[in-house]
Amino acid sequence: RFQQVQSMMCDLMEWRSQLLSGTLPKDELKELKQKVTSKIDYGNKILKLDLIVRDEDGNILDPDNTSVISLFHAHEEATNKITERIKEETSKDQPDYASYSRMSSSPTHSLYVFVRNFVCRIGEDAELFMSLYDPQKLTIISENYLVRWGSKGFPKEIDMLNNLKVVFTDLGNKDLSRDKVYLVCQIVRVGRMDLKDSNSKKCTQGLRRPFGVAGN
Questions:
Q1: For 171-205, how does the pLDDT look when each residue is reduced to its tens digit (9 = 90+)?
Q2: DSSP bridge partners of 212
Q3: 170: which residues sit within 8 A by CB, 6+ positions away?
Q4: Which residue did the predictor score with more confidence, 55 or 187?
Q5: Is the pTM of this model over 0.85?
Q6: Left, alpha or beta for 177 (phi > 0: left; psi -120 to 50: alpha)?
Q7: Alpha carbon 28 to chain centroid distance?
Q8: CATH match for 1-93 among 3.30.470.30, 1.10.10.10, 1.20.1270.350, 3.40.250.10
Q9: Which pLDDT belongs to residue 18?
Q10: Pairing relation of β-strands 145-149 and 139-140?
Q11: N or C: which end of the chain has fewer CB within 10 A?
Protein backbone atom coordinates (compact mmCIF):
# COMPACT_ATOMS: atom_id res chain seq x y z
CA ARG A 1 0.00 0.00 0.00
CA PHE A 2 2.89 2.34 0.77
CA GLN A 3 4.38 1.76 -2.68
CA GLN A 4 0.97 2.33 -4.26
CA VAL A 5 0.51 5.67 -2.48
CA GLN A 6 4.11 6.61 -3.28
CA SER A 7 3.45 6.08 -6.98
CA MET A 8 0.28 8.20 -6.79
CA MET A 9 2.13 11.01 -4.99
CA CYS A 10 4.80 11.04 -7.72
CA ASP A 11 2.05 11.32 -10.34
CA LEU A 12 0.49 14.23 -8.44
CA MET A 13 3.82 16.05 -8.16
CA GLU A 14 4.42 15.65 -11.89
CA TRP A 15 0.93 16.93 -12.72
CA ARG A 16 1.40 19.82 -10.30
CA SER A 17 4.53 20.92 -12.16
CA GLN A 18 2.55 20.83 -15.42
CA LEU A 19 -0.21 22.97 -13.89
CA LEU A 20 2.29 25.52 -12.61
CA SER A 21 4.15 25.69 -15.91
CA GLY A 22 1.41 27.85 -17.45
CA THR A 23 1.93 26.32 -20.88
CA LEU A 24 -1.19 24.14 -21.11
CA PRO A 25 -4.16 25.15 -23.29
CA LYS A 26 -7.40 25.90 -21.45
CA ASP A 27 -9.10 22.60 -22.24
CA GLU A 28 -6.02 20.54 -21.32
CA LEU A 29 -5.68 22.54 -18.09
CA LYS A 30 -9.27 21.73 -17.13
CA GLU A 31 -8.81 18.06 -18.00
CA LEU A 32 -5.60 17.83 -15.94
CA LYS A 33 -7.29 19.45 -12.93
CA GLN A 34 -10.05 16.85 -13.09
CA LYS A 35 -7.40 14.15 -13.36
CA VAL A 36 -5.65 15.48 -10.23
CA THR A 37 -8.83 15.70 -8.15
CA SER A 38 -9.85 12.20 -9.28
CA LYS A 39 -6.49 10.81 -8.16
CA ILE A 40 -6.77 12.60 -4.79
CA ASP A 41 -10.28 11.29 -4.18
CA TYR A 42 -9.19 7.77 -5.13
CA GLY A 43 -6.22 7.99 -2.75
CA ASN A 44 -8.44 9.20 0.10
CA LYS A 45 -10.76 6.25 -0.49
CA ILE A 46 -8.09 3.53 -0.36
CA LEU A 47 -6.61 5.19 2.74
CA LYS A 48 -10.08 5.22 4.35
CA LEU A 49 -10.11 9.01 4.68
CA ASP A 50 -13.13 11.31 4.38
CA LEU A 51 -14.84 11.60 1.02
CA ILE A 52 -14.58 15.08 -0.50
CA VAL A 53 -17.39 16.21 -2.80
CA ARG A 54 -16.69 18.65 -5.61
CA ASP A 55 -18.45 20.60 -8.33
CA GLU A 56 -17.94 20.12 -12.07
CA ASP A 57 -14.77 22.24 -11.99
CA GLY A 58 -13.23 20.16 -9.20
CA ASN A 59 -13.76 22.78 -6.47
CA ILE A 60 -14.77 21.55 -3.01
CA LEU A 61 -18.45 22.18 -2.30
CA ASP A 62 -19.18 24.57 0.56
CA PRO A 63 -21.73 22.90 2.87
CA ASP A 64 -22.87 26.32 4.09
CA ASN A 65 -23.91 27.35 0.57
CA THR A 66 -25.08 23.97 -0.75
CA SER A 67 -28.40 22.32 0.04
CA VAL A 68 -28.54 18.99 1.83
CA ILE A 69 -30.11 17.28 -1.19
CA SER A 70 -27.40 18.61 -3.51
CA LEU A 71 -24.72 17.38 -1.09
CA PHE A 72 -26.35 13.97 -0.96
CA HIS A 73 -26.42 13.67 -4.75
CA ALA A 74 -22.82 14.88 -4.91
CA HIS A 75 -21.75 12.23 -2.37
CA GLU A 76 -23.65 9.57 -4.28
CA GLU A 77 -22.07 10.56 -7.60
CA ALA A 78 -18.58 10.79 -6.11
CA THR A 79 -18.94 7.37 -4.49
CA ASN A 80 -20.02 5.77 -7.77
CA LYS A 81 -17.08 7.32 -9.64
CA ILE A 82 -14.56 6.16 -7.04
CA THR A 83 -16.07 2.66 -6.97
CA GLU A 84 -15.72 2.43 -10.75
CA ARG A 85 -12.16 3.71 -10.49
CA ILE A 86 -11.28 1.05 -7.90
CA LYS A 87 -12.70 -1.67 -10.16
CA GLU A 88 -10.60 -0.37 -13.06
CA GLU A 89 -7.45 -0.25 -10.95
CA THR A 90 -7.92 -3.72 -9.48
CA SER A 91 -8.57 -5.20 -12.93
CA LYS A 92 -5.25 -3.93 -14.26
CA ASP A 93 -2.12 -5.99 -14.02
CA GLN A 94 0.19 -3.84 -11.90
CA PRO A 95 3.03 -6.08 -10.66
CA ASP A 96 5.37 -3.22 -9.76
CA TYR A 97 3.98 -0.21 -7.90
CA ALA A 98 7.47 1.00 -7.08
CA SER A 99 8.06 1.98 -10.68
CA TYR A 100 6.70 5.48 -10.58
CA SER A 101 8.19 6.88 -13.73
CA ARG A 102 5.89 8.55 -16.20
CA MET A 103 5.59 5.32 -18.17
CA SER A 104 4.14 3.59 -15.12
CA SER A 105 1.06 5.81 -15.14
CA SER A 106 -2.01 5.02 -17.21
CA PRO A 107 -0.83 4.18 -20.74
CA THR A 108 -1.50 6.78 -23.39
CA HIS A 109 -2.03 6.37 -27.11
CA SER A 110 -1.79 8.66 -30.10
CA LEU A 111 -3.55 8.94 -33.47
CA TYR A 112 -1.52 10.13 -36.46
CA VAL A 113 -3.42 11.89 -39.26
CA PHE A 114 -1.89 12.92 -42.59
CA VAL A 115 -4.10 15.26 -44.66
CA ARG A 116 -3.28 14.61 -48.31
CA ASN A 117 -6.03 16.58 -50.02
CA PHE A 118 -9.33 18.36 -49.56
CA VAL A 119 -11.87 18.03 -52.37
CA CYS A 120 -14.91 20.26 -52.04
CA ARG A 121 -16.12 22.94 -54.46
CA ILE A 122 -16.52 26.08 -52.37
CA GLY A 123 -15.23 28.91 -54.54
CA GLU A 124 -13.65 30.76 -51.62
CA ASP A 125 -11.12 30.23 -48.85
CA ALA A 126 -12.04 27.75 -46.15
CA GLU A 127 -10.98 26.68 -42.67
CA LEU A 128 -11.00 22.97 -41.85
CA PHE A 129 -11.33 21.97 -38.21
CA MET A 130 -10.52 18.31 -37.54
CA SER A 131 -11.21 16.65 -34.20
CA LEU A 132 -12.13 13.34 -32.56
CA TYR A 133 -15.79 12.91 -31.66
CA ASP A 134 -17.71 10.46 -29.46
CA PRO A 135 -21.14 9.93 -31.12
CA GLN A 136 -22.70 8.32 -28.05
CA LYS A 137 -21.85 11.12 -25.61
CA LEU A 138 -22.24 13.73 -28.37
CA THR A 139 -18.99 15.41 -27.41
CA ILE A 140 -15.62 16.27 -28.92
CA ILE A 141 -12.79 14.49 -27.10
CA SER A 142 -9.79 16.31 -28.57
CA GLU A 143 -8.58 19.73 -29.61
CA ASN A 144 -9.20 21.01 -33.12
CA TYR A 145 -6.56 20.74 -35.83
CA LEU A 146 -6.89 23.77 -38.12
CA VAL A 147 -6.05 23.73 -41.82
CA ARG A 148 -6.52 26.89 -43.88
CA TRP A 149 -7.45 25.94 -47.45
CA GLY A 150 -7.32 28.38 -50.37
CA SER A 151 -9.97 28.95 -53.02
CA LYS A 152 -7.69 27.52 -55.73
CA GLY A 153 -7.59 24.07 -54.16
CA PHE A 154 -4.31 24.35 -52.25
CA PRO A 155 -3.37 25.08 -48.62
CA LYS A 156 -3.10 28.79 -47.82
CA GLU A 157 0.45 28.16 -46.63
CA ILE A 158 1.76 26.57 -49.82
CA ASP A 159 4.84 25.37 -47.94
CA MET A 160 2.55 23.02 -46.01
CA LEU A 161 1.54 21.15 -49.17
CA ASN A 162 2.03 17.41 -48.58
CA ASN A 163 3.06 18.23 -45.03
CA LEU A 164 -0.28 18.61 -43.23
CA LYS A 165 0.22 16.24 -40.32
CA VAL A 166 -1.19 16.10 -36.82
CA VAL A 167 -0.93 13.74 -33.86
CA PHE A 168 -3.87 13.53 -31.44
CA THR A 169 -2.14 12.64 -28.16
CA ASP A 170 -3.07 11.62 -24.62
CA LEU A 171 -5.70 9.08 -25.67
CA GLY A 172 -6.11 6.64 -22.78
CA ASN A 173 -7.66 3.23 -22.35
CA LYS A 174 -10.99 4.94 -21.71
CA ASP A 175 -10.88 6.42 -25.22
CA LEU A 176 -9.98 3.07 -26.76
CA SER A 177 -12.91 1.42 -25.00
CA ARG A 178 -15.45 3.79 -26.58
CA ASP A 179 -17.87 2.02 -28.92
CA LYS A 180 -17.13 4.47 -31.74
CA VAL A 181 -14.79 7.38 -32.29
CA TYR A 182 -15.19 9.54 -35.41
CA LEU A 183 -12.69 11.82 -37.07
CA VAL A 184 -14.87 14.85 -37.83
CA CYS A 185 -14.00 17.68 -40.21
CA GLN A 186 -15.95 20.93 -39.88
CA ILE A 187 -15.76 23.24 -42.90
CA VAL A 188 -16.06 27.00 -42.49
CA ARG A 189 -16.24 29.22 -45.59
CA VAL A 190 -14.37 32.52 -45.31
CA GLY A 191 -15.39 35.33 -47.66
CA ARG A 192 -18.64 36.82 -48.93
CA MET A 193 -21.99 36.61 -47.20
CA ASP A 194 -23.51 35.17 -50.36
CA LEU A 195 -21.53 33.29 -52.99
CA LYS A 196 -23.81 34.78 -55.68
CA ASP A 197 -22.91 38.32 -54.64
CA SER A 198 -20.73 39.58 -57.52
CA ASN A 199 -21.35 43.31 -57.13
CA SER A 200 -18.10 44.76 -55.83
CA LYS A 201 -19.91 47.59 -54.06
CA LYS A 202 -22.01 45.20 -52.02
CA CYS A 203 -19.43 42.44 -51.75
CA THR A 204 -18.47 41.60 -48.18
CA GLN A 205 -15.16 39.98 -47.30
CA GLY A 206 -13.76 37.91 -44.48
CA LEU A 207 -17.05 36.59 -43.11
CA ARG A 208 -16.92 33.10 -41.59
CA ARG A 209 -19.90 30.95 -42.56
CA PRO A 210 -20.52 27.27 -41.70
CA PHE A 211 -20.39 25.31 -44.94
CA GLY A 212 -20.37 21.60 -44.18
CA VAL A 213 -19.20 18.72 -42.03
CA ALA A 214 -17.83 15.25 -42.72
CA GLY A 215 -16.95 12.27 -40.53
CA ASN A 216 -15.25 8.93 -40.76
A1: 877 787 888 899 999 999 988 887 776 655 566 77
A2: 187
A3: 28, 108, 110
A4: 187
A5: no
A6: alpha
A7: 6
A8: 1.20.1270.350
A9: 79
A10: unpaired
A11: C
